[in-house]
Amino acid sequence: MSTRRTTLSGHTFEFPSLVELMAKATPARSGDVLAGCAAESAAERVAAQTVLADLPLATFLEEQVVGYEEDDVTRLILDTHDAAAFAPVASLTVGDFRDRLLAWAAAGDEAAISGLARGLTPEMVAAVSKLMRNADLVAVGRRTRVVTGLRSTLGLPGRLASRLQPNHPTDDPVGVTASIVDGLLQGSGDAVIGINPATDSPARTVALLELVDAVIRRYDIPTQSCVLAHVTTTLRALEQGAPVDLVFQSVAGTQAANRGFGVTLDLLAQARAGALELGRGTVGRNVTYFETGQGSALSADAHRGIGGRPVDQQTLECRAYAVARHFEPLLVNTVVGFIGPEYLYDGKQVVRAGLEDHFCGKLLGLPMGVDVCYTNHAEVDADDTDSLMLLLGAAGCSFLIAVPGSDDVMLHYQSLSFSDVLTARQVLGLRPAPEFEEWLARMDLLDDGGRVRDLAPDAPTARALLAAAAR
Amino acid sequence: MSTLPGRSGDNGPDPWAVLRGATRARVALGRAGDGLPTARELEFRLAHAVARDAVHTALDPEVVRAGLDGLPVVEVHSAAADRAEYLQRPDLGRRLAPGWSLPRPEADVAIVLADGLSPRAVHEHGAALTTALLDRLADWSVGPVVLAAQARVALGDEIGAALGARVVLVLIGERPGLSAADSLGIYLTWAPRPGRTDSERNCVSNVRPPHGLGYAEAADLVLRLLEGARELGASGVALKDEGPSLPSESGHRSPPGIPAGADPRTG
């Protein structure tokens, strides 16, 4: 490991390791300050970016941020690296790679960008993102194509799907159903109807799975359900023959952090195999769903790399994507703004992190969505989340999470609302997933212009769905 | 323009009332184009504003002293200089700023009133809850009430150790939500000393009469936990069967992206 240095404006900056170089090149955020790895001045940050720009991409295949021997995520990354996919950019530096991506994006060459995924490591992608401005992240993200499917097809050009998140503080079936109906009537739910259960009880998980499955079957909705219980709970539900569409798990970028989540790669493989065996897909076979978020490793005190040095939270986030992509997910989303101001302090940091996560996940081959959200103790409000939502829509984000009226009454934070997603679609000319759009039309929920109707309560569809909620 | 009738018609023929009656979630809000109708938008904005104000209100010692009716109060400050630093550096909120001194009464119980993420909760419920606790602690010696500014739960470990207390009770403002900005939580830690972990604490959450737990009810729960901890010589998960252990975010309700053990509300 060699010290890298540069002299800018007469001052020499030294970066003794790749871990420190990556951290100091990261745009400012509170989590890296908390971890003690952030650049100590604005000039030091640019110096690190300058050094990083000259680093050959191939460096990341030889020099690690988190050790190969002690971390199974690093082993997964390097052992599954696809040299043929890497070949088109193998001779580039990080800075050249940025320029190349921007050129491909401007030319609309989706194949060139999207074909790289298996040849890129999370560290390469994190590195190039650190050199990019927000608009760069949008421009390249928009031209990175990742299409997945189970009973709806996600990631197609010109589409923006949403996860309908009908959480309830006690998992009350009527309460959950009311939120599902509210979301469906506003054109949400094409990515998934996904519930965070209030308890991790296997019986409750099965009951919720059966409830959503019944709604989906009764109205023949081309979407999938998910109860976001721990993977071990989903395994038990599978054993009991529950209607499991998707295996969910929160994952992080180090083996130690995943241990904190109670997850191993073997467990994930086992659960995925169980869900695949059920054969519940109609248009595809992607049966996993992962959530991630910058700061999760640090909050578990599992954020250290080579030499015990703290790794920056954005690089660790990208490593979580390597875990996710190994299991060919239908959906992956970062939860940006939930974890608190000690990781992302204000609207500027949240917007930046959301765009980075989307870009990096997609470039690595993930069907990337975002939970655009905030808590009341962060310097973030709905104006900030509006901005991020519209930027993500422009960036070709696969799906956004939406809850009734932006207020998640179980997890106690604010996400987007169902009507926010309609706004993003309207402003940017985006449409729901094709199968779901056909269903909305069949249910008479769309007007002649394809817009989700402002429903009068006595409309036949509204009456039918409301009656379902009443049961 | 909203196509929905007003929310007052819940008893009338309004079919959306079915949805609204089924959940506390903000369903059936109606739309103005693809946005929210103005009235709904302002309701939401007000809820957020109240929560924000609760976070950013400064702890006012005089408000608490007035409610404690002449009881001795010692004021301390964490190493977090101001609110912005407090919010970004939870590590600083867990230790005392240099220069603050505490008496050493070697009492059984130390009571710490901590602003946490809602100083407003301390203003509204801190003194009354402390009084309810003192009423039930006849069996125990109690040190002076410590009022801690820019404080996290774990600051109680250092304070309890400095006071020589056998157990510390930290009464702390919980993270404001849209529906409740004045919840107080109580964290009990046996044999407090710096380095204690969340799994070594027990918690009684959501003290905010009349909507949440009442003072007497909460104090009764704490007394039972105290007696259990004394018998066991420990608090935390070992005390689990005797009372509630750390709820919500610390365990199976882990919100997205947060592993067990982190407590984003107050930690």
TrEMBL record, chain A:
Binds between the large and small subunits. Pathway: Amine and polyamine degradation; ethanolamine degradation. It catalyses: ethanolamine = acetaldehyde + NH4(+). It holds the Pfam family EutB. Its EC number is 4.3.1.7. The basic unit is a heterodimer which dimerizes to form tetramers. The heterotetramers trimerize; 6 large subunits form a core ring with 6 small subunits projecting outwards. This is Ethanolamine ammonia-lyase large subunit. The gene is eutB.
Automatic annotation (TrEMBL), chain B:
Its cofactor is adenosylcob(III)alamin. Pathway: Amine and polyamine degradation; ethanolamine degradation. Its EC number is 4.3.1.7. One of its GO terms (molecular function) is cobalamin binding. One of its GO terms (cellular component) is ethanolamine degradation polyhedral organelle. Pfam families: EutC. It is found in: Bacterial microcompartment. Adenosylcob(III)alamin binds at residues 153, 174, 203. Residues 236-267 are annotated as: Disordered. Its main location: other. Keywords: Bacterial microcompartment, Cobalamin, Cobalt, Lyase. InterPro entries: EutC, EutC_C, EutC_N. One of its GO terms (biological process) is ethanolamine catabolic process. It catalyses: ethanolamine = acetaldehyde + NH4(+). It is an enzyme of class 4 (lyase). It comes from the Bacteria. Binds between the large and small subunits. Coiled coil: none annotated. Catalyzes the deamination of various vicinal amino-alcohols to oxo compounds. Allows this organism to utilize ethanolamine as the sole source of nitrogen and carbon in the presence of external vitamin B12. The basic unit is a heterodimer which dimerizes to form tetramers. The heterotetramers trimerize; 6 large subunits form a core ring with 6 small subunits projecting outwards. Belongs to the EutC family. This is Ethanolamine ammonia-lyase small subunit. It comes from Blastococcus saxobsidens. The lineage of its organism: Bacteria, Bacillati, Actinomycetota, Actinomycetes, Geodermatophilales. The gene is eutC.
